[in-house]
Design a protein that fits this description.
The complex is a heterodimer of chains A (about 260) and B (about 220).
Chain A: H1 3-24, H2 28-51, H3 62-89, H4 101-130, H5 139-163, H6 170-184, H7 196-202, H8 206-218, H9 229-250
Chain B: E1 3-16, E2 19-32, E3 37-41, H1 47-54, E4 62-67, E5 73-77, H2 89-100, H3 104-115, H4 130-143, E6 148-152, H5 160-173, E7 178-182, H6 186-192, E8 195-200, E9 203-207, H7 210-218
Parallel strand pairs in B: 3-7, 3-8, 5-6, 6-7
Antiparallel strand pairs in B: 1-2, 1-4, 8-9
Helix pairs in contact in B: 2-3, 3-4
The chains are: A mainly alpha (about 260), B alpha/beta (about 220).
Chain lengths: ~260, ~220
């Protein structure tokens, strides 16, 4: 291993631990909310569907149905938001000369990935213990897809964070875009439930394919017809590559 | 002359109301190794920015700044922006030591001994008074061994006794390290520096002898 890589790994590890301490520190409430928020969100959406007379689609139990939607979208969204804010919140770290902008992003990625995976695991175990969900049919692929959702969030966040050095308003637009994606990524519905005229447009959203496949991996009896994993993977690769390129090209624009 | 820090055609500017305000314009300099360097200039000339550029905390718009191979340069002394306010001094020492790959126990012992924070050492930094914060920032900086320390007058909030202690520590460090000083106190420059740069009109002017540099600064 080269010295530079060893230093980078050490720095990223240090930053990730610092970030975890910063997020949770001595405040236990931070940890509680991290787990309670997605559970509450899933429960509310499940309740809304039940009230509307639409329990889980195609034989899927309602709670894991909504949990899949919420957790995968949150993985993407929280990672994206965390990345976009990370440089603003951690500019002071650049005074430690081993630390580069990319290290700050990578440290944030490691922290948020750890949180997102832990939250998913805890919620899965809680659902199983409460008896509201069957065992997942393809847990390995569910895990891979969850990591992919985080990586997509990383790439997307990196693109926005880098471009916002030139156009600061992009950060506000990103928040609006996230809100739109929240309602169009299949958290509330399965694709076949949507009228064809709307479905055609919704399917342009790669996160909708991600949500569909998360449900297909959880319930083998639900084979998604509309979710396209390749389409999602193409977006993921393009955004990660573009994000890394833009970060390199635009980092000099940062006024610290 | 071996260079500790090399500035190669460095330009740094900020956009102010649509116009470029230059801090450094096409500046080349070889800051000598083995000597402590003073940087003088009027208020607003860009001395602090220059120190941040040297610390690599800020990038030039053009040109490059390099350190001699293997040389470790500190962050600007007394700077605390990288510390987490809601965790304790102990945890901050641990976190920063990790980034630098140092033994945090050894660093912590030195910080605890030097900063004199008592039981506050385990309290979040946000509960510290400005003086305590200043003592911690300074202690943290000197507890890490660097080949070159950067000073940007930030000790103003510490009390007289601590300032004196800090000066003694700087004198001790001078036996094994060099400094880059930004200070308006000529006594400090005269005491610790062996050469001077004067920053004026986005240019750095080098003076081999400190009194000559001070004279030039006073004529600005």
């Amino acid at each position: 291993m080269t010295d530079a890589l060893a230093i980078q790994l050490r720095v990223v590890k240090g930053l990730a631990l610092r970030d975890l301490a910063g997020q949770f520190g001595k405040r236990g409430t931070g940890i509680v909310f991290t787990f309670v928020t997605p559970m509450m969100q899933s429960a509310i959406i499940a309740l809304m569907r039940l009230v509307a007379g639409a329990p889980g689609y195609g034989g899927m139990e309602i709670f894991p149905f909504t949990v899949c939607g919420v957790l995968y979208f949150r993985a993407f969204s929280l990672m994206n938001m965390a990345l976009v804010d990370s440089l603003n919140q951690n500019r002071g770290l650049l005074y430690f000369h081993h630390v580069t902008e990319l290290d700050i992003y990578l440290g944030k990625f490691v922290t948020q990935l750890t949180i997102n995976l832990t939250v998913a695991l805890v919620i899965y175990v809680a659902m199983r213990m409460a008896g509201v969900a069957p065992p997942a049919d393809e847990p390995f692929f569910l895990l891979l897809l969850l990591i992919a959702a985080n990586v997509f969030g990383f790439g997307f966040g990196l693109v926005i964070a880098s471009l916002s050095l030139i156009v600061p308003k992009l950060q506000s637009l990103n928040r609006i875009l996230n809100r739109i994606l929240y309602f169009t990524s299949g958290i509330f519905f399965a694709v076949p439930e949507v009228p064809p005229a709307i479905r055609e447009y919704l399917l342009y959203n790669p996160l909708l394919s991600m949500t569909e496949w998360s449900r297909s991996f959880y319930f083998l009896q639900y084979q998604t017809v509309y979710g396209n994993l390749y389409y999602f993977a193409e977006f993921l690769v393009v955004f990660v590559v573009l994000g890394l390129l833009l970060e390199r090209l635009l980092r000099d624009r940062l006024v610290r | 002359m071996t260079a500790l820090i090399t500035l190669n055609r460095v330009s740094k500017y900020y956009q102010v109301k649509g116009r470029k305000r230059y801090i450094l314009r096409d500046v080349s300099a070889k800051m000598p190794s083995g000597k402590s360097i003073g940087i003088l200039g009027r208020n607003g000339a860009g001395k602090s920015t220059t120190v941040r550029l040297i610390a690599r905390a800020e990038r030039p718009n053009k040109g490059s700044i390099t350190w001699a191979p293997g040389v470790e340069v500190s962050w600007p002394m007394g700077f605390g922006g990288g510390f987490l306010p809601h965790v304790s001094a102990r945890d901050n020492v641990q976190l920063v030591s990790r980034i630098y790959g140092r033994d945090w126990h050894a660093i912590f012992e030195r910080v605890e001994d030097f900063a004199e924070l008592g039981s506050y050492i385990d309290m979040p930094l946000e509960t510290y008074s400005s003086g305590m914060r200043s003592r911690f920032n300074f202690a943290m900086s000197v507890a890490m061994d660097f080949d070159c320390y950067l000073f940007d007058e930030l000790m103003s909030v510490a009390d007289v006794r601590f300032r004196q202690k800090a000066e003694e520590e700087i004198a001790r460090l001078a036996n094994r390290s060099t400094f880059v000083f930004v200070s308006h106190r000529m006594r400090t420059i005269q005491k610790f520096c062996q050469c001077v740069y004067v920053l004026n009109d986005a240019k750095l002017e080098y003076f081999e002898r400190v009194p000559d540099g001070i004279k030039r600064y006073e004529s600005l």
